[in-house]
Amino acid sequence: MTGISRVLWRLPASRLLAATLVLLMAGGVAAATGAIPNSATGEVHLCYDASDAVRDPGGASVGIIDNQRNSRGCDSDERELVINQRGPKGDTGATGATGATGATGATGATGAQGLQGPQGGQGPQGPKGDTGSQGPPGPTSAPAHHLAPISTVVASTGSRATVTVATLNLPEGRYRVAAGIDALNNDGSSQTYECHLEGPSLGGGRTTNGAFNLLDSSGGQAHLGLSSIAQVPAEGGTASVVCNGFRLTLLGYLEATIVS
With bands split at pLDDT 50, 70 and 90, how would you rate the model's confidence at 86? Predict the structure, then answer.
């Protein structure tokens, strides 16, 4: 066995394995002998003559070849023996017993606050809520217009008299109060008569349109118009038409209209 890709030893078979192991532990043979063990597989390739091992008490000659550089391998009268630099992986060992639980470590420091995340999308619309109970009734609004008719006879017998011929009860507010009166003289002689607006809502005073009015003898007629502004307080108030005369028929109206 010769050549640059072969290293020769003449060792008894009992020392063959030990010598090879020494070579593996030494890191192999390099430089002139190439890559031993094989740089790709980590294997060592050996060549020996089996007949020499049986015939010669000193053992057979062993050649270690660099099979990366010597593709020819062992000679035709030799056998090849391949030894791994690393043995096969052993079976997985049994699982060891569970160790005792370690002591609880100290609480770590609070980490810095993270960045605020993006605003989430709008959620779906919730279900319709139950119908609420009916609320209390609201305040009743006062009517904007009040009206009272006038149809009376003043002092049909006896002497002259002063009579309230119409009255309105008004809630709080500001009103324009007006009256239209047609007077008919039922006396046989001419007479004067008088009508005016009065009441607490008018400041307690008297409002007269035109003082006294002259009526001719029996059958004489005249028309009188009265008006004023009334500021009715929160507790309410009244507005009235008061007339003075004798055997006097009066027809007409008293009205109050709310103003701003």
Answer: low
Residue 181 has pLDDT above 70, yes or no: yes
d(CA 246, CA 163): 10
The Cα-based distances of 67 to 10, 28, 41 in angstroms read 20, 13, 11
Q: Letter for the amino acid at 260? A: S
Residue 172 or residue 13, greater confidence: 172
Could you tell me the pTM of the whole model? 0.45
Q: Domain for residue 131, yes or no?
A: no
Instruction: Name which of 243, 240, 178 is nearest 212 in CA terms.
Output: 243
- pLDDT value of residue 23: 53
233: domain range?
145-258
Tokens encoding 94: 């049994």
102 within domain boundaries: no
